[in-house]
């Protein structure tokens, strides 16, 4: 895999690490890169140099604020700075491809997403030049750079959270990505210097492989649960496959109106958004729409699906048994009281006849009131959720938190709320000491 | 705002085969870029850069050099006239009057008020240029108070502050300063007179040009 390279990084008189800190060089190099890609792909571009300068200046400020003093961290900082540059370029969006039928056929990354491809190529070329000049490394981009599935995931992830661009740049450059976020170099270094607590995070491209990975986890290490914890609040949403079913049915519902949409796009755009957003999307693309008809038919569809397929997450039963055996009380918390939620919990309890002293009931509350459930001793309480507002509210009152990470695209949002531990699923839930 | 648009088209791909290779070689070098950028910014400061005694042999005066001269305010006003005219045209596309008298007065006031804090002179100069309404609409001299005027003033102060080497092209530098001005403007509120913050942002940005 080779990228269209621009002359300036290949010039023997150019010390890229120094020169890239000047807007003069940066703008010239970027325009060269755009022309190289334009010549190769026959795509016409418009460059907004004001936005480009904004991206450069914001990147330079972050660069200056975060550059490490320790020599051993300088190599890692090259990767970090390249990711940071990609994030700033994506945010500022200085490039617009002029779409035509021929150059938007999506048969290769350059035509699938010309702007994103150009930003990635530019950052990778700068990174390669710095590594070659300052560290004697010869880099070759990874095969993922040619993989349209990777580019689809990249585009969707960036749409939800632009900071996901940094780990994707690592993926394209052949480095091992850290999907938990990149905006702070110091935090990144600290996380890398610690032994992994939650296992390696892998990027999977299709649902089948994702399910397979969860059912047969390859994470040998489980942390121990803090013995002072006597009560666990579990978010009903993370106990079941409710979110996945919701996304599937919403996809079917949108498609039923003749609007093409993928499962991944629905997840990225509408999973955590009010239903009105999906209705607006359909209305724009399909013409007129009756919102009440959309909602009623969707609710009917969803109720049927929940009744048939709502199931507990893999590993949940084992965790509940362990907690019950350790005399840790469990309270299920939910943002709304629903029939399917109660039915699910009843079925789940029935599936654990051998568990002594197990009582679980649903408490309905919102982020403001989650902490009232932790009284009288918040420090002896732990919240398990994938909701960043709940996690932030609980942490504020001293409640320990475990974040259940959703698929790629939501990890960053969860990480920002800083749960004490982030795990991929219940297989990695801390084990009790009993 | 018309600032900062460059169109890049795959010229080579649109040419017939026999011509493509020759023409492709011709346009693939760095000169191709220079032409493109110059064409996009040809309205910049050519008119005043090449003439007049206000220019040093090796390029533009620095603000420190002007402060050390008794006729610094006059020289500043003449340079500011040309650069502000060009910058304003790029941001707002229209014609305005630049008052050299008020620009010189702004320079003198800034120099006088910050005698003991010379390092903050650029920030004070920007505030004075704004207060004195140096950019005016003709013929009656009404103050032009719009986005373009504010960005033009930031541009020119950045342009004066930017480091120059013997090969520096002042046209190109003014174009870059125009690009950077919006970012600086988004981080400061010129009218609030937070002089230290203003100074920090201006000098940080100028170092990166």
Describe this structure in a few short sentences.
The complex is a heterodimer of chains A (434) and B (209). With 434 residues, chain A is an alpha/beta fold. Chain A is built from 20 helices and eight strands.
Explain what the structure shows:
The complex is a heterodimer of chains A (434) and B (209). Chain A has 434 residues and is α/β, with parallel strands linked by helices. Chain A has 20 helices and eight strands. The longest helix of chain A is centred in the N-terminal third of the chain and has 22 residues, at 114-135. The termini of chain A are far apart. With 209 residues, chain B is mainly α. Chain B has a three-stranded antiparallel sheet. In chain B, a hairpin with a 4-residue loop joins strand 3 (135-137) and strand 4 (142-143). The model of chain B is unreliable at 15-54 (pLDDT under 50). Chain A binds chain B through residues 7-8, 21-24, 27-28, 31-32, 34-35, 38-39, 41-54, 56-58, 60-61, and chain B through 3-10, 12-13, 24, 28-30, 32-33, 36-37, 172-173, 175-176, 178-180, 182-184, 186, 204-205, 208-209. Strand 1 of chain A pairs antiparallel with strand 1 (5-8) of chain B.
The total count of helices of chain A amounts to 20
**Helix segment count of chain B?**
11
Rg of chain A, Å, rounded? 24 Å
Main pleated sheet of chain B: 3 strands, antiparallel
- Give the end-to-end Cα distance of chain A, rounded to a whole number of Å: 53 Å
Estimated share of beta-strand residues of chain B: 5-15%
Shape of chain B: globular
Mean pLDDT of chain B: 72
Secondary-structure element order of chain B, as H and E?
EHHHHHHEHHEEHHH
- Total beta-strand segments of chain B: 4
Largest interface: A-B, 33 and 33 residues
